[in-house]
Amino acid sequence: MSQARVAEMRVSPYNIIVEKVFGDTGVIYNGVTGTILRIQPRVREAIRSGRIELLTPGERADFESKGILTRCIETQKDSLRKLYEHMKSPWPQCTFVISPTSKCNLACPYCYERSTDDDAGLMSREIAGRTVKFICNNMDDPERHTAALKFYGGEPLLALDTCRQIASDVAGWMQAHSKKISFWIQTNGTLIDEKTFCPPFPERTYLEATVDGPKKKHDRTRTNDRKDPTYERVIRGIHTAAEHGVRIILRVNAHSGREMAEALDDLDEHGVKAIEELSFYDGQVSGAFSKWIKGTGCQGKIESAEHMETVVGIRRVIAEKGWTDKYQSFPFFRAERGLCHFARPGNYSIDAAGNLYLCSFQMGDENYRVGVIEEDGTASFSESYFEIMRRSPFDHEKCSECAYLPQCWGGCFAKAFGKHGSFSAPECDGIQDTLGLLMRTALVEGAYA
Ligand code: SF4
Ligand code: SF4
Fold first, then answer.
1. CATH (one of 3.20.20.70, 3.90.950.10, 1.10.443.10, 3.30.1440.10) for 93-347
2. Pocket perturbation via mutation, ligand 1, pick of 296, 357, 434 by most ligand atoms within 8 A of CB
3. Whose CA is nearest to atom 2 of ligand 1?
4. Which candidate among 46, 100, 241, 379 keeps its CA 20 to 30 Å from the CA of 324?
5. CB 19 within 8 A of CB 26
6. Mean pLDDT across the stretch 40-68?
7. Which burial class, exposed, middle or buried, applies to 101 when counting CB atoms under 10 A from its CB (0-12, 13-18, 19+)?
8. Model pTM above 0.90
9. Does residue 131 contact residue 156 with C-beta atoms inside 8 Å?
10. Ranges of each domain in the chain
11. What is the pLDDT of residues 165-185, one digit of tens each?
């Protein structure tokens, strides 16, 4: 390679280097190509300092093919811009999170939902009808072929008839238009009985429930105002649902390996391990969870090195206890990371009054309302909706050549509003601190995709 050709080469701005992952060997990740490579200190220094003449011709050619070196930063930026625009274009799969009631029969101390205890928060038949029309209007597009309907709350089974009405009307329309749909019920599990799934929900149904650690802990925290224990009821509910062909997704909260071990032993004792169509994931209830925006529990959100160690310890226990085949383990790091789906068009959250939100964690907070469903099922959007849809990290100098851009994409619009009062503002959300930690753990533990 001639001196002139070497001089044309630049270090890509979209590289992240993590030092000493395997002894002295570090790792470099390039967000344009998704390449992850081990690098020795000599190479790391050459890349860090931009002195690429210190690399061998073979290394330069290899790094150029992997995007770590480039002759044109603008070309790399353009390919990221195109990817971002693609993610913001109408999507073939749509998700509708519906809260048919904001009421809940439990009063868990850490709950971040804005639950109510009166009937004002119940969705009327009229609003349920508008909701069905809204969903069908959205799906009435040849490019859109799959929908997921998630009943959320409050406790959605307090409004079982409304859930059924919406599910059967939407399923009928989807079937008539040869489109696929799945139903998800996020419930505390205490209200399930034989009647819940008779008649069954149409199509494929998933039930998402939570056990708050071992039985003794769950019975202390997942309670109603009278402090009645609920563990046995939840487990009965899970068995009943499974007997009716519903697939179960269990969130098992645990804050240490020991707590997970006890929780899994209790579940095993109650016959849960033997349920074929059941998977689970681990969750931690943390203070930071509701710090800015109620639900920053977006997958992969790790708050500290200690939190990371806890999760790694929990995963070991899950393997030791023989639950691996049921465990939904998210990779600590993905080489290609998309946008949060609530930032993509075609995904909505709908409250009991027919108000539209994007992220379900903000339902009920007027600041995050992006519109309302009209009588004919069309939407009247507010300016905030268009602002979120127009949002682009390429409008901000600090984002457009940021090494973290292909992982962060300018951050969460909801957190941006919570912290900076603007949906368009960039929101780094500490990614500079956490991503290296996630990458290191992912590579050491083999948990990356
Ligand atoms: S919008 Fe923000 S808070 Fe909501 S799920 Fe997405 S990243 Fe998380
Ligand atoms: S929000 Fe922050 S971390 Fe994300 S791309 Fe912009 S500057 Fe980088």
1. 3.20.20.70
2. 296
3. 412
4. 241
5. yes
6. 96
7. buried
8. yes
9. no
10. 3-71, 93-347
11. 999 999 999 999 999 999 999
